[in-house]
Design brief:
Number of strands: 5
Order of helices and strands: EEEEHHE
Strand order of the largest sheet: 1-2-3-4-5
Structural class: alpha+beta
Largest sheet: 5 strands, antiparallel
């Protein structure tokens, strides 16, 4: 687990899950927490790759926090899982 982004609005964490057996598939993805909506979404597979490519492309333009938040908000519109405090 690696914290990638933290703003007043969002937190983005990357998860890498190693393969259970040698030669098996490695899994992982990105968890995005929308602090204001109090919802989260986990992106994996093609959607995670799309998210990563978009962030890398955005990073090349010297974006502001607002630019990153606007990009991330496009993915959190899909969020259905409420954030639970433990």
């Amino acid at each position: 687990m690696q914290l990638l982004y933290h703003s007043d609005s969002f937190v983005v964490v990357r998860f890498d899950v190693p393969a259970e057996m040698p030669g098996g598939l490695e899994r992982g993805g990105y968890e995005i927490v929308d602090k204001f909506a109090r919802k989260e979404i986990f992106l994996e597979g093609v959607l995670a790759e799309s998210f990563k490519a978009g962030v890398e492309q955005l990073a090349e333009t010297e974006p502001s926090v607002e630019d990153f938040d606007a990009y991330i908000s496009r993915f959190t519109a899909l969020a259905q899982q409420p954030v639970a405090m433990h």
